[in-house]
Amino acid sequence: MIRGRLLPLLLTVAGALGAAGLLADGNTVAAAAVLPACVAFAAVNSPLVFPAPVGGEEARRRSMADGRPVIYWRPGCRYCRRLRFRLGRDARRAHWVDIWRDPAAAAAVRAVADGNETVPTVVLPDGRARVNPDAEWVRELL
User: Fold this and answer.
1) Where are the domains of the chain?
2) Beta strands 95-98 and 70-73: pairing type?
3) Which of 39, 98, 113, 140 has the most C-beta neighbours closer than 10 Å?
4) What average pLDDT does this structure show over 91-119?
5) For the domain 51-141, what is the CATH code?
6) What phi, psi does 103 have (nearest 5°)?
7) DSSP secondary structure letters along 58-117
């Protein structure tokens, strides 16, 4: 849980310290630019921009019931973030599983991705999987 929030926390702290240093030097304009930029970058890298994750077993159960894909991801992954933003509002229709919260989900990704925890990995209800898929392909499934 802490791993996913570490990068946003560090970015926010670095922005606050940088802005404080700039303010101490009397450079208020730069300080006013640095802090919001760091906070915005922290927000983009936060797990909060993703739909609420569910456990791997629950996601597979839901996927079998409604036919929607399961997307395995991890906080801080730029490819996961890119997929999330390219899907837009449609991203909320998929079942998102954070592999850092669920060791069984991480094992499922390793089984599909030749022993690596490569994310995003999309698994369909019929068991087919695709690692780092194109957003348009995922959108068609949703």
Assistant:
1) 2-48, 51-141
2) parallel
3) 98
4) 90
5) 3.40.30.10
6) -60, -30
7) HHHHHHHHH-PPEEEE-TT-HHHHHHHHHHGGGGGGSEEEETTT-HHHHHHHHHHTTTS-
